[in-house]
Amino acid sequence: MNAMGPERVLGPEELAGLLDLGGRPLPAVLDTACVRTGLHYQLRNETPPASVTTARDGMIRLFMEFETLSETLSRLPRFAAQFGVTVAELRRMLAEDWLPHIQVVKLPPSLRKLDPRAAAIRGKDADDYPAAALAALLSPCILLTHNHKDFAALGVHTSKQGVDAVMGVIAVDIGELRLQAVVMVPTGPAQLAIVAGKWAAERIGPQAVWTIVIAAAACGIFWYCRQPTDRRERIKDVAGSLVTKYMDEFTAAADAVTQARVDLHALLVPGPEQRGRASAILRELAIAPEPLSAQQLASLLDESLRPRVADLRALLRADDALFREARRGGYELGRHYLLPDAG
Q: Among 21, 144, 197, 264, who pairs with 162 as Cys (CB 3.0-4.6 Å)?
């Protein structure tokens, strides 16, 4: 047993899901306690914490329930006194560095009570209830909090779990870049040949290019066949060792990405046992790389949860505290919040 609880082997369906993130951002929900430590980190290091920078870079998408944000703002005087700075400085940091990368969501009471895990947390601390309800609806997601005792019902077992999950997202991204680099090595010469072929075809014609290619291939085969037997064996050995080295590097890079995703999976708030329609709608909007129309959103929902497009469009238009029309007919979850004295 590890710090996260009993180790569990992922099933084929779960593992397949880990391998197909599809380039979409992972939702992350901010709690007041994590904002406090993040502001303290920024004061000491003169740069926002990783949770904010990864949201800025598009790897995660930060969400905050409106009541949690209100609680955070009300506690700024206390934080300022603890850090030895002015409230104005903390408000400036929030306004300039944090809030442009946070989607603020105002959940109605009817949605907050949908997931029983959030209700269990409400019984421990009512102040944690808004963040818990939002995280439950968007799960699987990162929950950025240091209060692991109150959020245990959502699978938070350590005070660093949320921060570790953000670092896990970064590890997955680095692993994917390494894997892409390995994949690009053997395709580099081929891409160069394709570009050269297109350039030549525009000048001497495709038929002449094919004649040159066939002639070059024939010359290569002829040259190989004319080599002594021992030299041909050395050529085959070198070629075989290059292929083996490439496959070893590819396997190592692919295994590293898979392990990083498995590790990240263990740090997330797990998804609900059975997702309802409202939760499915909110999650699809949360992970969409761009605003969705009602038709696009409907196509992403499971058939058993899919409402009529007209009904879905009416829902998106009805609650502007929950959904924002970011472009004509395109909606996203939550909205950016401006502090009153920050514009």
A: 144
23-57 residue pLDDT tens: 689 999 999 999 999 999 999 999 999 999 999 99
The verdict on 299 and 233 lying in the same domain is no
Query: How far is 260 from 231, CA to CA, in rounded Å?
Result: 43
Q: Give dist(CA 214, CA 22) in Å, integer.
A: 40
Are 103 and 149 in a shared domain? yes
CA pair distance 166, 267, nearest whole angstrom: 9
pTM for this predicted structure: 0.77
How far apart CA 206 and CA 203 sit, in angstroms, is 9
DSSP states along 284-340: HHHH-SS-B-HHHHHHHS-GGG---HHHHHHHHHH-TTTEEEEETTEEEESB----G
CATH number, position 79: 3.40.50.1010
Q: DSSP code of 148?
A: T
Q: Are residues 132 and 297 in contact, defined by beta-carbon separation less than 8 angstroms?
A: no
Q: Is there a domain that residue 168 lies in? A: no
- Residue 287 located in a structural domain: yes
Residues 6+ apart with CB under 8 A from 46: none
In a domain, 34, yes or no: yes
Contacts of 262 (CB under 8 A, 6+ apart): 10, 15, 18
